[in-house]
Amino acid sequence: MMKNVLSSLKRLFRKTECNVFIAGSGHEGLEILKEHNIDIIISDARMPKMTGPEFLTAAAEQYPHTKRILLTGYADMEAIVEAVNLGKISHYVEKPWDDEKLQQLVEDTLVTINLKKKNEHLQSLLASQNEKLIAMNESLEATVKERTKKIIEINSALQENYKSTIDLFANLLDMRNPKPNVDVPDIISLVTDMAELLHLPQRELIHLTRAAKMRYMSQMSFADELLFTPYVLLSEEQKHEYKQYPLKGAMLLKNIRPLVTVADIILHHKEYLNGEGYPRGEKGESIPKSAQILTVANDYVELITGRLLEKTLTHQDAINYLETKSGTHYSVSAVEALKSSLSLKKVETPINDLHVTSQQLTAGMVLSRDLRNHNGDFLLSKGVKLADSTVMLLTELEKSAKKSFNYLSTYHLD
């Protein structure tokens, strides 16, 4: 009986594209399963030594990926139940079977198996691609992070270079401009205090301080008479030339992208709210807030240094002058901010000056006054922190001049 079943099955699937393996018992079937990758198992319920359900149970445990079909007679209901529960069969077929139906069952099962294999392959491929994608993303993130770090470093270096360049121009301008005989508040400190009191954004404050340092840039080309004469005493022709300095200064900077806003502040820092300023006579809201702050601070400095009016004004007279023009020429809030800033500076702890010679200079000392040589020529601005290289240069300058410089209470320790 067993041989007849095997022969019939072999003959039935001979013309298919399947590789058919025949086993005479359950033990032989397990051996074949060890040696070959089997997709479908068709087992008779009644076999010698090992029943069909027992064989399929063992196959299910060892080769769970296989599809298992049980051939059984109508009276073998107990075998069917056992095969379903333990052998986890996918189908059972009653004997005698219909060849076409059994063939169709096997073909449908193979289609299902192939679809499952393709799905598993795609899932594996997808997982592999996902792993590669994750690795690529991690690599990309690392690259972006590294490049961002480099960009930040480069940007910081550029910002530092801009700052150093601006400071250099500021020092050159200080050397060229008239030196007052009075102690003048640092305009950078003034505009910084005023901007903070008026809640100016940090980025705008940076532009404002740069503009304060470079506002006189175009005055480098002025003749001494134009530079050292108070504005009100200039001839009409000289005034016309003088009034162009904000415009010329702005034109020097406007093509440098990081300094475009700085150029705009410089252009407007001599404009007044009522339109009586220069170079364009702009008024009101057309004047940037930063420029309005610089206008007040700059005019205050020019009033107490004698650059604006015929006579040099005292601190209080300068404040009174600004207050009389507050709201017409100057921003009311900017004038009040200036007064608050100057008031705060009055209560600051006085600087403890030290009288020193060049041999006593050390790195870390900070200039509390402008430094001049024995002829009174300007060398360094107050507030500069001395470095070793600066000390060496000052010593060399003294040796070159063959005279000691006249250090007037110029230094205090940081």
UniProtKB/TrEMBL annotation:
<dbReference type="InterPro" id="IPR037522">
    <property type="entry name" value="HD_GYP_dom"/>
</dbReference>
<feature type="modified residue" description="4-aspartylphosphate">
    <location>
        <position position="44"/>
    </location>
</feature>
<keyword id="KW-0597">Phosphoprotein</keyword>
<dbReference type="InterPro" id="IPR052020">
    <property type="entry name" value="Cyclic_di-GMP/3'3'-cGAMP_PDE"/>
</dbReference>
<feature type="domain" description="Response regulatory">
    <location>
        <begin position="1"/>
        <end position="110"/>
    </location>
</feature>
<dbReference type="Pfam" id="PF13487">
    <property type="entry name" value="HD_5"/>
</dbReference>
<feature type="domain" description="HD-GYP">
    <location>
        <begin position="158"/>
        <end position="353"/>
    </location>
</feature>
<dbReference type="InterPro" id="IPR001789">
    <property type="entry name" value="Sig_transdc_resp-reg_receiver"/>
</dbReference>
<dbReference type="Pfam" id="PF00072">
    <property type="entry name" value="Response_reg"/>
</dbReference>
<protein>
    <submittedName>
        <fullName>Response regulator</fullName>
    </submittedName>
</protein>
<dbReference type="InterPro" id="IPR011006">
    <property type="entry name" value="CheY-like_superfamily"/>
</dbReference>
